[in-house]
Amino acid sequence: MIFRNIFRAILKDENTEDFKKEVKGLNIKSNSTLTFSLFKDGKDLFAYYECKGINIEISKILKAVVSFLEPYPSKEGPRYFIPMMDIFHYNKPIEDNNWRLSDHKGKPWPRITRIKPEMLSSYIFYHHQYQEEKPGDGDKYGIIALNENLLFFYMEVPELKEKAKYEGLLKTKNSPYNIWSEVMMPHFMPWEGVAKGQEIWKEVELIIHM
User: Fold this and answer.
1) Helix-, strand-, coil-residue percentages of the chain, each rounded to 5
2) What is the C-alpha to C-alpha distance for residues 146 and 3, in angstroms, rounded to an integer?
3) What is the pTM of this model?
4) Closest Cα partner for 139 from 127, 154, 123?
């Protein structure tokens, strides 16, 4: 079984040189870990990783750097890593040995955006419809995850398009042809002070990729 994980964390300080040095010195890969990537935007951290057979807890992988993180309050005590919910994926693992292809040399292309809170249900509706009407329609590893109203979009470039090895849950054909332009634009809260072309989906910094 393949497990796909996306977590968010908050750094105590944006001056992160010591944090980066600590992370790059960690021995993260294991027999169960297929890939691991860590990204940063300001004080926000995002971790994406895949495990095979056994799903390793993020708190064990990044235990050595918890002192750099702000705790999230919870009933069980402080938490340092918040799971982000998968609300859209182009494809999903069905066969363990054919999921992470050894000859695919894709590099992470992570981006983030903000959804207007009142438009979140609409965004999820359209994406679920598209996901189940057209499985396998985009990058095999492309996935969008949600925490609060922040979306994290993990992709790899060059894209790997592969026909899904399963059927979608919907037999309808209702996804708008212009879903990524006219239909989606009213959902977003644009970023300010970003590079041209990143007003909606802002690229984030890659810290490590294994």
Assistant:
1) 20, 30, 45
2) 17
3) 0.94
4) 154
114-154 per-position pLDDT tens digit: 999 999 999 999 999 999 999 999 999 999 999 999 999 99
For residue 120, what are the contacts with CB-CB under 8 A and spacing of at least 6? 146, 149
What sections of the chain are H helices per DSSP?
17-24, 58-61, 120-133
What is the residue range of 33's domain? 2-209
DSSP letter assigned to residue 203? E
**Burial letters 43-74, b for 16+ CB under 10 A, else e:** ebbbbbbbbbeeebebeebbeebeebbeeeee
Structural domain count of the chain: 1
Dihedral sign for Cα 179, 183, 189, 190, please: positive
Location of structure tokens 């890969």:
29
pLDDT tens profile 155-201:
999 999 999 999 999 999 999 877 677 889 999 999 999 999 999 99
38: CATH:
3.30.70
CB 133 within 8 A of CB 86: no
Q: What phi and psi, each to the nearest 5 degrees, are found at residue 179? A: -60, -35
Number of C-beta neighbours around residue 12 at 10 A? 13
3-state secondary structure of 162: coil
What is the 3 state secondary structure string of 45-100?
Answer: EEEEEEEECCCCCHHHHCHHHHHHECCECCCCCCECCEECEEEEECCCCCCHHHCC
